């Protein structure tokens, strides 16, 4: 546990759970659909948590992990919140790692039926083959992390990957914005180039493209298979450093059917409830909140 964290009491977690259930119950939803949550092999999750424990100098913010529990406890928590469907959002930071993660992801999905079968990739020899295999094995969603992987989405080693994904129409949650810290290949430019080559790609822009919100909304306007997830966007934590421009709010209404709720659970530095309140306080109407928090995910994944 990092120095910035205080263990949550059972009473605090029970109160938050009650308030989250009240949130979706009042909207007459069957629960929540979270397209951006993280379950990983323990050794990988431990390294991710270690990164966030030291991320203050990189992001300018202390980053406590709000749900630093063992895997089975995390599953109990997210299910208790009423999240009916979620993801495992695995991603490699080096070669020769993605295929192993995909094997773990397939096993996790098999024993966790409410988790969408998640897979990933890296620009390396054989990537097209293991992505083909992942699609054949029933992968429902891919994760690409441009910042952590430090690779260009236009690396020629990924051409076969994008071709397969475009043909199969399996959505890819892609962390490509320059927040919380920019990378060599982050920003809207590389994604614009990618979409020019593969205009049918079903991309879900993580974190609303933070902080380049406007440019990624422009890409969603231009390409009908581009969606965005709300992960960390609009919260007090993110608004302090990368505020969403209020004059762009009408565009969120225009794109109502292509915005999906995501949380980044368990790696968030605030309560899960904050992410839901952040979506609702945009004041875009209950129908918009219903679409984002349930309907769009249910429609996309069936």
TrEMBL record:
Residues 34-302 form the Amidohydrolase-related domain. Keywords: Lyase. The lineage of its organism: Bacteria, Bacillati, Actinomycetota, Actinomycetes, Mycobacteriales. This is Amidohydrolase family protein. SUPFAM superfamilies: Metallo-dependent hydrolases (SSF51556). InterPro entries: ACMSD (IPR032465), Amidohydro-rel (IPR006680), Metal_Hydrolase (IPR032466). PANTHER family: 2-AMINO-3-CARBOXYLMUCONATE-6-SEMIALDEHYDE DECARBOXYLASE, ISO-OROTATE DECARBOXYLASE (EUROFUNG). Gene3D superfamilies: Metal-dependent hydrolases. Pfam families: Amidohydro_2 (PF04909).
